[in-house]
Specification:
CATH architecture: Alpha-Beta Complex
Number of helices: 9
CATH class: Alpha Beta
Structural class: alpha/beta
Number of domains: 1
CATH topology: putative 2-phosphosulfolactate phosphatase
Largest sheet: 5 strands, parallel
Strand order of the largest sheet: 7-2-8-1-9
Length: about 240
């Protein structure tokens, strides 16, 4: 039986063997939700980079560029870290460069995996269907917040475990924890997350609509996969 495991922060990724594993990176608020939305609205590719300077260099070469730090847009870039920024015809067919506080760093750290996928509640069912067709173990990598645990990414991991638990064995206690947390909160994720640190951070910025949007399940049949240095939509 295949295994599914959960890494609750990229700071612990070195403790996991990923050379024969599909890694699903989750940064629910908001990087991976933005990426999934961007592909649903026709973006051609997204290059995730770890630093603002790398993103600025790609912008100078004609890429649409999205840069976020501390949940706010970096001055001088084309796009911010709200999924609503990607719901526009001008992004159709575009190549995007993106850097965020947590999500893109988690992706770049996962490059040695068999495959790196981008997961969110928005494309949960599409990710589940794809993983069921694969022979590999799965590791859900929660992007967290600056190396620390966060609740929303762990809840996504738990949702993925819930839908795969009949075909995957829960490998570690972190997997069981994520699954139990999701089972507790699944009926009202917004309420369950009400006092979480990132919810408070986003609410201070006045972007409650992003929170509600990012917690919707199964909106898009999109599976972003890292090929070389770029994410592309496997469903195309």
């Amino acid at each position: 039986m295949k295994n599914i495991d959960v890494c609750i922060t990229p700071e612990l990724l070195h403790l996991h063997k990923i050379d024969n594993t599909i890694v699903v990176v989750a940064d629910v608020f908001r990087a991976t939700s933005c990426m999934v939305t961007a592909f649903a609205y026709g973006v051609e590719s997204i290059i995730p980079v770890a630093t603002v300077d790398e993103c600025r260099d790609l912008q100078s070469r004609g890429f649409l560029a999205a840069a976020e730090r501390n949940a706010q847009k970096v001055e001088g870039f084309d796009l911010d870290n709200s999924p609503f920024s990607y719901m526009d015809d001008h992004i159709r067919g575009a190549q995007v460069a993106m850097t965020t506080t947590n999500g893109t760093l988690a992706i770049t750290k996962s490059r040695s995996a068999v495959k790196v996928l981008v997961g969110s509640f928005l494309n949960l069912d599409a990710i589940v269907r794809y993983l069921k067709s694969q022979p590999y173990d799965v590791l859900v990598l929660c992007a967290g917040w600056k190396g620390r645990f966060n609740l929303e990414d762990t809840l996504f991991a738990g949702a993925l475990v819930e839908r795969l638990k009949d075909t995957y064995m829960m490998a570690e206690d972190s997997t069981i924890m994520a699954w139990r947390l999701y089972c507790q909160g699944q009926d009202n994720l917004i309420q369950y997350l009400a006092n979480s640190s990132h919810i408070r951070r986003l609410q201070r910025l006045g972007i409650q609509k992003d929170i509600a949007y990012c917690l919707q399940h199964d909106l898009y049949d999109v599976v972003p996969v890292l090929r070389g240095n770029a994410l592309v939509n496997m469903r195309r």
